[in-house]
Amino acid sequence: MQLDIDIEAWPAGEWEALTERAAVAAGEGEPLLANPRLLVSLLFTSDEEVHGLNREWRGRDKPTNVLSFPMLERSELAGLAADGPPAMLGDIALAHETCAREAQEKGVSLEAHAAHLIVHGLLHLAGHDHVESDAQAEEMEALETAILAKMGIADPYGA
Fold it and tell me: GO biological process annotations for this chain's record (predicted)?
């Protein structure tokens, strides 16, 4: 997977390296994400920016921690050959203030929480969801937990 990372409104840190580690681990946990043709754009930005995106694209007038905008259906992703030009998988945006507040509330580092949200966003881009049913949510949470364990990050759901 190729990454296009833009960092705005986040404190200095190793965000690019963290994103690359999360993408590799996600590809190990969800093989569809391991396709070398895939391109993902990831924006580390402010609550204000994510609030605007959430309002415009999802009709929700509030900030949120992470937004994912998939550009391929899961079936298209599954059928994507490994050879060929780059294929845009989608965009992810992380809101700093919300992420920082949630990390503090959970008693984890901002880096660990950001890694979780990056993995969460990548899984959404791969067609996973947690909205339709409890079974979907449990499956996605288990996959996130396994991927984060590969990164040495504790279970974010506390199980």
Answer: rRNA processing
CB 55 within 8 A of CB 6: no
Domains of the chain by start residue, with CATH: 2-150 (3.40.390.30)
Each residue's pLDDT tens digit, 20-71: 999 999 999 999 999 999 999 999 999 999 999 999 999 999 989 999 999 9
C-alpha 153/C-alpha 96 separation (Å) is 20
Crossing angle between the packed helical segments 96-106 and 47-58, to the nearest 10 degrees: 110
Residue 120 marked ligand-binding: yes
Q: Which of 110, 93, 117 is nearest to 5 (CA)?
A: 93
128 annotated ligand binder: no
pTM: 0.95
Residue 159 pLDDT > 70 = no
Question: Dihedral (C-alpha) 43, 44, 47, 50: value to the nearest 10 degrees?
Answer: 10
